[in-house]
């Protein structure tokens, strides 16, 4: 591919986008134009750091106000909720290609019936029967949140009202599980003060990205570029 910016040939790495290479060359040339960089400099790290200095100097990005952050917080409530948690234990009867599945299920059902009658034996039976490393800790999985486990296991854990030793086996791709839900910690919405900085950083990142696109568009509108099409504008007010 032949790529040039204002008559300057631009090399494009095998795994790089030509648009990125052209934009970088535009910025390098602008840095030379405003006296931040000597045109003879070839050191890539020096060029990159100078481009950063150029953007800091010429691309202004306002800091989001508290009102803007609060508006984002109110409009996106689910983004700032701590997830539900459960403390859970399990005993896994693992199913492998060599396993007699009906026999394994029967063994798991027998163990479940025993535990429903004698729940205090859970830790001992986990150590004896479970094919999961957690068996060594009495089957303890610790705190589990949504997304931590495979969907079929998660569905059983977070089923409304599920607590204690579940009365049915939970079947997953790994086998049959006896599951105990020991404690639930409902999720809650995080206070605005806790997430304000996070919101401000997110909004500032969006503004910076838009401002950078606009800046490169203006440079592209004033340049002669061959080999790639960059969005170009002669106006600094491009949207």
Automatic annotation (TrEMBL):
Residues 83-183 form the PpiC domain. GO terms for molecular function: isomerase activity. SUPFAM superfamilies: FKBP-like. Signal peptide: none annotated. It is an enzyme of class 5 (isomerase). It comes from the Bacteria. It catalyses: [protein]-peptidylproline (omega=180) = [protein]-peptidylproline (omega=0). InterPro entries: PPIase_dom_sf, PPIase_PpiC, PrsA_foldase. Its EC number is 5.2.1.8. The keyword Phosphoprotein does not apply. Keywords: Isomerase, Rotamase. Gene3D superfamilies: 3.10.50.40. PANTHER family: PEPTIDYL-PROLYL CIS-TRANS ISOMERASE HP_0175-RELATED, PEPTIDYLPROLYL ISOMERASE. Belongs to the PpiC/parvulin rotamase family. This is Parvulin-like PPIase.
């Amino acid at each position: 591919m032949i790529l040039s910016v204002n008559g300057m040939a631009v090399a494009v790495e095998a795994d790089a986008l030509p648009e990125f290479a052209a934009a970088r060359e535009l910025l390098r040339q602008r840095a030379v134009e405003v006296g931040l960089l000597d045109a003879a400099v070839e050191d890539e790290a020096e060029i990159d750091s100078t481009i950063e200095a150029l953007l800091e100097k010429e691309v202004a990005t306002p800091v989001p106000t508290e009102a803007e952050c609060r508006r984002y917080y109110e409009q996106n409530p689910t983004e700032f909720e701590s997830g539900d948690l459960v403390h859970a234990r399990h005993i896994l009867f693992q199913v492998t290609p060599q396993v007699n599945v009906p026999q394994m299920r029967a063994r798991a059902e027998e163990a479940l019936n025993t535990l429903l009658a004698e729940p205090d034996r859970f830790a001992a039976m986990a150590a004896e029967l479970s094919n999961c490393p957690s068996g060594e800790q009495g089957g303890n999985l610790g705190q589990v949140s949504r997304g931590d486990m495979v969907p079929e296991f998660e569905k059983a854990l977070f089923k409304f009202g599920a607590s204690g030793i579940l009365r049915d086996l939970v079947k997953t791709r790994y086998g049959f599980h006896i599951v105990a839900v020991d404690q639930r910690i409902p999720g809650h919405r995080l206070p605005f003060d806790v997430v304000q900085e996070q919101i401000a950083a997110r909004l500032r990142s969006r503004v910076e990205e838009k401002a950078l696109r606009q800046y490169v568009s203006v440079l592209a509108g004033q340049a002669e570029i061959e080999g790639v099409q960059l969005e170009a504008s002669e106006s600094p007010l491009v949207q």
